[in-house]
């Protein structure tokens, strides 16, 4: 058991990094990123498919009160960002939460979190690529270019929509437009060996192009990211300012049409809009001054995006009634609704740019996590290979491209949004708890950002008591439904149990308030995600553990020579 939780030393990590010996070929990455670049990269990763698409469903469920959920989620991410900032300051190398867990909890937890981050970066990018394809097709149609439907969708979604359309026709009901399109797509698709050929070709192509850019180098990626961020911020500010002239205050009443439960129903969609600020921590070895700039970049980008998100939520729900917002492109929809189609076209362009920037940051992040895992011996050495000319993790970048491009070509995105949110929240929980067990700094200059210490001895227990009192009815109902396979309520009971344990430990050990609240907020958001996504999450984790015990544990650099680990 002791080998499963062996830890890396912060002092050795920093010493190796400074000596330039952190990869297997003794080659370093290019240190070219400044605090401005990191802030732009954070904004690039955060403002993407979430704000341009999933916000519509969240607003449909929660009404104008969805603005509260953006604030709650921002606070949650803010607590996590502060914890990331301390880790980034003290452990200034690539690897993000994976490396942070290695020094806090040990190897097994580090592997688990590294495996979970694949859900955030690689699997999450599949969703973004599919979203990009939809917006790109809208742009082409605006130019009079119409791609065949079988090149714009996956076979599973096409088959499902076709069957739904057939069911409508048997009832002699008029077909909605999207089902009419589904019939045309299915019937006009080429057939090979009795199978209809359908694929999302634009999604595949954009992933290939982004992978090439990430492969070529961080300088090129930085310039592209900065340009895309400036463009989409200008468009979003323009949308907010113009939209406020068309706001009807009557649309904000009632502010919470479905109560606070309706607001929380949008947790996965809203949190998905925040995913990405932690991705910049994977670029630590490409920062000019990671100990100073990484914390600033994360916090600055989170603050800027939160303000923009709240304003957009208020504009959307003020321009049209919340019940009309369950659409794939809510920002474009509301301006079409008020007869300003030219604004919708600008928004579609911005959406293409925004989702492109998200893909670029995520395609940069995933290879660097694999590179760190490979350096530690948990993955084959090939994953740590640095390109001699471009100074990028070449092999890992190519593998990431394949892992994203092929599924984006043929798979639907519905389940992947929830999986991405679970994987990210799981990483956040471990990072927040990890700060509590970080070893004391031996060298004061080692970390330039220090998480403010607020004694949680009384704060955490008092907040826990207030929570249990406020949710006592749900807790009682959860116990009543335990025997009815209501998995969502079982998750709530588990959360309350963890809350009580953490409150007791906070009282006994004087834990810092910020990381504890960060972990608890993330845990609560996790239990609001549908139970079916949890099932797939556990399957994914089980697969990862099999790989660790069959390969990683035996080949770990921390495995002593001549010892069977």
Automatic annotation (TrEMBL):
Keywords: Membrane, Transmembrane, Transmembrane helix, Transport. It is a multi-pass membrane protein. GO terms for cellular component: membrane. Gene3D superfamilies: Amino acid/polyamine transporter I. One of its GO terms (molecular function) is amino acid transmembrane transporter activity. Pfam families: AA_permease_2, AA_permease_C. The chain crosses the membrane at residues 38-60, 66-87, 108-132, 197-217, 229-247, 259-277, 298-322, 342-365, 390-410, 422-439, 451-470, 490-508, 520-551. Residues 514-556 form the Cationic amino acid transporter C-terminal domain. It is found in: Membrane. PANTHER family: CATIONIC AMINO ACID TRANSPORTER 4 (PTHR43243:SF4), INNER MEMBRANE TRANSPORTER YGJI-RELATED (PTHR43243). This is Amino acid transporter.
